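Box 3.1. Reading complex inputs
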Amino acid sequence: MHEFTEAFRLAFALVLAGDADLIEIVGLSLRVSLTAIAVACFIGLPLGAWLAIARFKGRGAVLVVVNALMGLPPVVVGLLVYLSLSRAGPLGSFGLLYTPTAMIIAQTILIAPIIAALSRQVIEDLHAEYDEQFRSMGLSRREAIAALLWDGRTALITVALAGFGRAIAEVGAVIIVGGNIDHLTRVMTTAIALETSKGDLPLALALGLILLVIALTVNALAMSLRRKSHSFAHG
Amino acid sequence: MADPIRTAALTLNAGGEDRIRALDLTLSATGTTVIMGPNGAGKSLLLRLLHRLIAPTSGTIHSTGRQAMVFQRPVMLRRSVEANLLFALRRGPYAQDAANKCREVLTGIGLNTRAKQPARSLSGGEQQRLALARALSLGPEILFLDEPTASLDPTATLAIEKTVQRAADANTKIILVTHDQGQARRLADEIIFLHNGQLCEHTLAAEFFDAPTSPQARAYLAGQLVL
């Protein structure tokens, strides 16, 4: 019990002292995950909106695949990205393996299907309400998608938040493609895994605490944005 | 001014049943045409066919000119009153001067003080006024209205009717579906009476109300159940 108390004390001390290693790891985690969520939203939101309003043969099968991709195992994604980026792989010439870019690619592949599948559902509901009005006004599909994404922004904030939650907490893929290299590709989750295996609980706990605080802060921020946006949209 | 709207053998089959049956119509290019009939007669379906929101099973529709439609339940975008109107203005003939036109229209419909409020916070009557102003902002030559005052009180109904009448006076062709005989008498130049998807009467409003020729229309106007 004393060891746990001591570990927590040291963890708080590290956080309060602004430990350089800690800040570097937290900074890289945020950079990787925020970039991945931005790229995933850029791909996933229009794709989800398009899937919501397009009608084509085989749409049902495509929806099943996109929904299934939400449950992609991170280690499998890590392995596939590793194989693609390794020297012998098709993208090996770019030299991206064991870089933050490789981690961003892996996280984007993991969360883009989540963004696409969840936004598809949100937009489909909204589209059912707006469809006749938009067709009456003669909107093109592209204009309709843009308007639906804007009007669905309240719910889409939650979708982006779900993607960010998955990205920031992810360890399996980033440890494979990033390699958990100190001062280069070490992020919070991989550092927690490493420090725990080494028995250095204070640093692992400090990182765990920061991860929790980030999760709470992002949630609070998103909820506040959502409330503001919701009250504006619905009165 | 748009050409007259013509349909030939216009038919819509839904769920194995003919909901609109071989309608041959020629509607004048101006004035107000009111479509009446009991529930299930096919009034709203005919309106949607004419506006091309749904495709007919067979037959043809000929119409030209810009069109807009106001629905029974106004569809308000999740935006401010002003943004709802600007959304339409930027797609119509007033796109170059949308901001000024927006202020002018909002003043005209009495919503200028509520421009920044969410459109969904407006009352039913206010939302329908905004929906009508939004439709007119598209500069339509043909305006379709599907029971626009069905759930409104007399004051709100009067405001809508005045705006519709002004649009008709400005040579916008109005095609209105309503159950309200009083409203039809006030606005209609001609009446289309449908029953079970079939055309029972297509005549001038005065003639329709004075001497309806079909037994279904007579029963309907007498307030009897039309089965």
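In summary: Chain B touches chain A at residues 48, 51, 53, 67-69, 71, 75, 77-80, 87-88, 91, 117-122, 138 (CB under 8 Å).
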